[in-house]
Request: fold
Amino acid sequence: MPHLFLFLLFSFSWATLADTHRLDSFLQCLSLHSGNATSFSKLIYTQNNSSFSSVLELSLRNARFSTPTTPKPLVIVTPSHVSHIQVTINCSRNHDMQIRIRSGGHDYEGLSYVSQVPFVIIDLINLRSIDVDAENKTAWIQAGATIGELYYRIAEKSATLAFPAGVCPTVGVGGHFSGGGYGMLMRKFGLAADQIIDAQLVDVDGRLLDRNSMGEDLFWAIRGGGGASFGVIVSWKVKLASVPSTVTVFTVNRTLEENGTMLVHKWQSVAQKIHEDLYIRLFLRAVNSSQQEGQRTIQASFTSLFLGSIDQLIVLMQESFPELGIVKEDCVEMSWIQSILYFAEIPQSESLDILLNRTGTPAFFKGKSDYVKEPIPVTALEGLWQRFYEEEPGSVELIFSPYGGIMDEIPESETPYPHRAGTLFNIHYVVVWAEEDASASQKHISYMRRLYRYMEPYVSKSPRTAYMNYRDLDIGINNNGKYTSYRQASEWGLKYFNNNFNRLIHVKSMVDPQNFFRHEQSIPSLVRG
Reply:
């Protein structure tokens, strides 16, 4: 036993010495090739730097990956210029450091700031300028910006321009757009990725490429295939969407005692077919019953955005979904930018400046996703309700996000994001907990896996598809090393990308044949050697 201890201690010491030598060589490389070494050094944080922890934790959203045992980067680089990205890539390659690229830090499995091998984080927080051209209805957005910052800058210029992306303001545009990016305007305008008309990316050779110089294959791949597999996204050029000066929102809650099961079942055949100006999202959670003391029930929250007035919405709802019983008093008219606060559950009394706030409190959570092609039967919904009661009230939420509209018209191969025609809705599963110990995390993650197994008969099949931006390592991972077989990668790759996975691998093998940009679910290169 003492021999084993000595061996482990020696191995740890050797690894630490090796990492120290690697880090020193890496930092020397940065200094040598950075041009202005003094100013660049202020953008580099090693573990000895007093600001290292605060910089690391600023954009850290999942508390599961903020524990004493979570692997930390040897260094964090916060580039303020493209040249800083270029030199970081070149020095990382030369000194065998893996790169993790962080925009907003919302990766569900922490892949933008955690690795099991020596790594450097390129944190894009200093690259977040946004240039809105209201006249031409376009914008250039640097990849470190959040969607809240983007919405704010659009609203500064116009009350009738918008952008179709997610509802959480602190999500970074680098990852969100490159994985698809959907929100309340999806049925009208499509995904965030569908709006991209140009991009800037630094490739494995340190070259700054735009759409023209990268070519259409790589430009296709980064619009839904995950940018971090192919390089470092620096900025996106997008087209903006025209919306009315007044939109209408509502949120109505119905419990099982208020015919909730029937309404959820009916929603499945309505929300995907309803007029594309109307988006009705469905949130499901367990709550304490107001009618039976000590009992729990399921609350279905129907949350809606309509691109028009209350009067128009009421007519549409009476035609399409009268069972929900929407009346004028349920609805509120507001501007599109005010609806961003509404759906983010920010009080309307708050200043719009809150959208510029990048900070948030990390939560312990596990997420998963599914796509549904046939309505879930009533009996299956009733079985689902019982599974909610296995966890504490409020800790489990399922979000049903409807498809249809323009999503039915965009071909599956238009971008790597394949979930288009034939999809009724996406399911987002999330369980949240407060306990910090590892056994609590395992308990809640096991619950989520059981819930996911229960849903298997009622969701897409062959493959059971998933949404890449709701990252889930349960569905498959790559090898630790540089090479992962097609068979192994396709376990997760076909679920995210369906038939587009093969083209993504082809692009990857062309632009990054040695698989430098890699993580547990990066697109692999099939070039060996």
In short: The first strand starts at residue 44 and ends at 46. The chain is about 30% helix and 20% strand. The two ends are 40 Å apart (CA to CA).
